[in-house]
């Protein structure tokens, strides 16, 4: 049944197919794992299945607290039904702790808690390696209007607050994360909503006690154990448990003293 669907877009980690009704799409999570703009690429069995579940969990909760997202419902192990949006060609990164690109670029020690959360924008372009851009570039080149950028930043801050608390409750520090947003048209109205995914592929998640990396840095830094780390995140959030990997319960409280 899936073979005849029209493929709308294929990215590094996901495929978008046309959806069952106008204005909807089906988002398929692949096992492809890439880093450094695909210079590093591996298929990691089952990664797509876990990310589908984790992203479903996060987007469902965001929808519930009134943060608009493209997520409608999960369809199966690897697919979710989403609203079609006009993507804004930016990666919006929110950082709470110095790591990755920020630590390298500015020579800041990894792990330093930032004096305030920092929002950065990267222009989505594989050909250019997603260069960092400022609000000036974004508005001058028309990738988003000043009003849209305000909306994007307000969304990013709310998402950061929610995710920080969600992960803290299960003994995980949200170091940074990346989101992508799109324009949803409803009649004459347009609003900015969260699209893409939120998963350990798009966040840095450190165990609060052990500082262990529970995210894609396991792949970027060749640490191994990526699936086990993603499963640990899903297990702590109460999405899966060891014996029965399907049922969603609630977050599992972890002692953090
Ligand atoms: N990210 C950025 N581009 C793609 C992704 N997934 C995420 C990283 C990290 C954050 O954005 O996973 O959580 C910042 O990444 P970096 O490389 O800019 O330090
Ligand atoms: N930009 C993504 C990352 O490193 C994926 C990629 O570059 O291939 O996380």
Automatic annotation (TrEMBL):
<dbReference type="GO" id="GO:0005829">
    <property type="term" value="C:cytosol"/>
</dbReference>
<dbReference type="Pfam" id="PF01259">
    <property type="entry name" value="SAICAR_synt"/>
</dbReference>
<dbReference type="InterPro" id="IPR050089">
    <property type="entry name" value="SAICAR_synthetase"/>
</dbReference>
<keyword id="KW-0436">Ligase</keyword>
<dbReference type="GO" id="GO:0006189">
    <property type="term" value="P:'de novo' IMP biosynthetic process"/>
</dbReference>
<feature type="domain" description="SAICAR synthetase/ADE2 N-terminal">
    <location>
        <begin position="8"/>
        <end position="236"/>
    </location>
</feature>
<dbReference type="GO" id="GO:0005524">
    <property type="term" value="F:ATP binding"/>
</dbReference>
<dbReference type="GO" id="GO:0004639">
    <property type="term" value="F:phosphoribosylaminoimidazolesuccinocarboxamide synthase activity"/>
</dbReference>
<protein>
    <recommendedName>
        <fullName>Phosphoribosylaminoimidazole-succinocarboxamide synthase</fullName>
        <ecNumber>6.3.2.6</ecNumber>
    </recommendedName>
</protein>
<dbReference type="InterPro" id="IPR001636">
    <property type="entry name" value="SAICAR_synth"/>
</dbReference>
<keyword id="KW-0658">Purine biosynthesis</keyword>
<comment type="pathway">
    <text>Purine metabolism; IMP biosynthesis via de novo pathway; 5-amino-1-(5-phospho-D-ribosyl)imidazole-4-carboxamide from 5-amino-1-(5-phospho-D-ribosyl)imidazole-4-carboxylate: step 1/2.</text>
</comment>
<dbReference type="GO" id="GO:0009236">
    <property type="term" value="P:cobalamin biosynthetic process"/>
</dbReference>
<dbReference type="InterPro" id="IPR033934">
    <property type="entry name" value="SAICAR_synt_PurC"/>
</dbReference>
<dbReference type="InterPro" id="IPR028923">
    <property type="entry name" value="SAICAR_synt/ADE2_N"/>
</dbReference>
<keyword id="KW-0067">ATP-binding</keyword>
<comment type="similarity">
    <text>Belongs to the SAICAR synthetase family.</text>
</comment>
<keyword id="KW-0547">Nucleotide-binding</keyword>
């Amino acid at each position: 049944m899936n073979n005849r669907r029209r493929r709308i877009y294929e990215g590094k980690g996901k495929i978008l197919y046309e959806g069952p009704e106008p204005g909807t799409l089906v988002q398929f999570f692949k096992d492809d794992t890439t880093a450094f703009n695909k210079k590093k690429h591996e298929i990691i069995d089952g990664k797509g299945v876990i990310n589908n579940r984790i992203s479903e969990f996060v987007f469902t909760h965001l929808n519930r607290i009134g943060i608009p997202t493209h997520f409608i419902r999960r369809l199966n192990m690897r697919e979710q039904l989403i609203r079609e949006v006009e993507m804004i060609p930016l990666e919006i990164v929110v950082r709470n702790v110095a790591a990755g690109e920020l630590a390298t670029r500015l020579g800041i020690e990894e792990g330093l808690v930032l004096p305030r959360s920092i929002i950065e924008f990267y222009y989505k372009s594989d050909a250019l390696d997603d260069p960092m851009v400022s609000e000036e570039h974004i508005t001058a080149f028309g990738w988003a209007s000043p009003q849209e950028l305000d909306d994007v930043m307000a969304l990013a801050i709310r998402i950061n607050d929610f995710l920080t608390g969600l992960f803290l409750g299960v003994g995980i520090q949200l170091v940074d994360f990346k989101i992508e947003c799109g324009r949803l048209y409803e009649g004459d109205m347009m609003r900015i909503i969260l699209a893409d995914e939120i998963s350990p592929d798009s966040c840095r998640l450190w165990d609060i006690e052990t500082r262990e990396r529970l995210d894609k840095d396991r792949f970027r830094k060749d640490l191994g154990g990526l699936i086990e780390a993603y499963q640990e995140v899903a297990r702590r959030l109460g999405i899966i448990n060891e014996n029965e990997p399907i049922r969603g319960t609630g977050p599992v409280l972890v002692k953090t003293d």
